[in-house]
Specification:
Length: about 230
């Protein structure tokens, strides 16, 4: 159970134990872009924003509100949270002959920074996490454009802008609200996180691709997240 304040007496579990109900789950994907730069990170609630454009039909057809489900990120091997990550060796100062310090000419085989980044992205492997997300106009901030932003329920050692993200949206939590102050907004988001954690921990809501957890395999097909 949770010890978070719950003034509106909101339920901690959404949906039946058997799993997502029609029309869920929804799928979405995109590369993480910069958001409104409001410093959500400083509030402890960073949100990975996904591009939203008029041609994308899902965003037009889905109701605004707060949703929960699973996110997968194709983290490059250079990201500290990647399962492929290898910590750089702690570099002891090395005495080198003066000639070695002279800048070398760029070799044909060397990659530009851009090429290197692209190659790095290709080394990525999909990793799955629970998430909460907001779709809409953030009434507290009175946005004029519709946004889709995902708070991943995991602590990351570095940002992941530009990384491919896939979503399996399993359910609706609540409508977007306006608030009299930032504290009330944050409290509601923290409770949303608890709702997602508890709801997704049930067998019928856990994706099979996460493997066996406490002796049990998940009942939900998350193949899309790792394909
Ligand atoms: P922006 O306004 O650019 O979206 P935020 O303050 O919302 O900035 O921070 C979002 C960025 O923080 C994401 O794009 C991602 O790179 C990084 N980040 C780190 N941890 C998380 C997390 N748990 N969930 C979502 N994004 C995270
Ligand atoms: N913004 C709102 O204006 N009203 C909301 O009810 C609201 N709920 C949110 C719930 C979640 C789970 C998340 C991730 C964001 C929500 N937001 C909401 C968006 C929020 O205002 C935005 O991420 C801010 O930049 C956070 O400081
Ligand atoms: Mg954001």
């Amino acid at each position: 159970m949770t010890s978070l304040p719950n003034p509106d007496n909101r339920p901690l579990l959404i949906g039946p134990p058997t799993g997502p109900e029609t029309p869920f789950p929804f799928r979405m994907e995109g590369k993480v872009i910069s958001g409104f730069g409001r410093g959500s990170k400083e509030l402890g609630i960073p949100t990975a924003n996904l591009p939203v454009d008029d041609e994308t039909t899902w965003i037009k057809n889905i109701d605004s509100g707060i949703y929960f489900g699973w996110a997968s990120l194709k983290l490059p091997a250079s990201h500290p949270n990647s399962v492929l990550y290898q910590k750089p060796p702690t570099s002891e100062p090395v005495m080198e002959p003066v000639s070695a310090a002279v800048p070398q000419q760029r070799q044909q085989s060397e990659l530009s920074a851009k090429e290197e980044k692209e190659r790095d992205q290709q080394t990525g492997q999909w990793q799955i996490y629970p998430m909460v997300m907001s779709i809409g106009y953030n009434p507290f901030y009175k946005n004029t454009v519709r946004s889709a932003e995902v708070h991943v329920l995991e602590k990351f050692g570095a940002d992941f802008y530009g990384v491919e993200m896939r979503l399996l949206i399993t359910g609706f939590i609540r409508n977007e609200k306006d608030y009299s102050g930032l504290e009330a907004l944050i409290a509601d988001i923290e409770f949303d996180c608890e709702v997602a954690r508890h709801s997704l921990a049930r067998k019928g809501w856990r994706v099979r691709e996460l493997g066996v957890v406490q002796g049990e395999e998940g009942g939900l097909d998350g193949g899309w997240l790792v394909r």
